[in-house]
Amino acid sequence: MSWLVTEPAYLAQTRTAYDTVAESYADLLRDALTDSPWDRAVLSAFAELVGTTGLVGDLGCGPGRLTGHLAALGLDVFGVDLSPGMVEVARRAHPGLRFEVGSLAALDIADGSLAGALAWYSLIHTPPERLSPLVAELARVLAPGGRLLTAFQVGDEPRHITHGYGHDITLDAYRLRPDFVAELFTDAGLTVEARLVREPQPPHEKAPQAYLLARKPA
């Protein structure tokens, strides 16, 4: 007997949307870090804490812009993204790095194999009630002492996006409360080490932005 596994609709929706915008997304955000000292500071702290002796996963890497940035900071980093279109762009932009298609909900990564995991705005398309097993999956792949860094928009309202990066798309996104995300991390066995909330930077950001850093106990 064979079993038919049905993919959740939000995963298919997210993949299709990011396949559609992959090229324009990469073009528009290519130099975004230049204008965001907060992002650079948080990523630098993450890189320093993780160190250069273990493997790091950029999980939900998009076109690989942060994968490349972390590699430039000295990390042994690879990228995973749900969107084949994004992975194709990432491989062209960073031919010396490894990128794979995959879902954060079921990572093809061995238990305890990562010194660090970056989930940079990659939790925001999963319905909040489905985030607990996804965070548990991120915790699973971390080595003892490994660190997880995430970034997200602050709020508690869902948004339905019909146009983005110059394309008509269908995509749901969720703003999250830092306390809610911190509780998810704690429930997954992680220790929250730091959190930062900053005001939005116009014209592209409409809501405060949050960063949470957690550690898997040794």
Automatic annotation (TrEMBL):
<keyword id="KW-0489">Methyltransferase</keyword>
<feature type="domain" description="Methyltransferase">
    <location>
        <begin position="58"/>
        <end position="146"/>
    </location>
</feature>
<dbReference type="Pfam" id="PF13649">
    <property type="entry name" value="Methyltransf_25"/>
</dbReference>
<dbReference type="GO" id="GO:0008168">
    <property type="term" value="F:methyltransferase activity"/>
</dbReference>
<dbReference type="InterPro" id="IPR041698">
    <property type="entry name" value="Methyltransf_25"/>
</dbReference>
<dbReference type="InterPro" id="IPR029063">
    <property type="entry name" value="SAM-dependent_MTases_sf"/>
</dbReference>
<protein>
    <submittedName>
        <fullName>Methyltransferase domain-containing protein</fullName>
    </submittedName>
</protein>
<dbReference type="GO" id="GO:0032259">
    <property type="term" value="P:methylation"/>
</dbReference>
<keyword id="KW-0808">Transferase</keyword>
<dbReference type="InterPro" id="IPR050508">
    <property type="entry name" value="Methyltransf_Superfamily"/>
</dbReference>
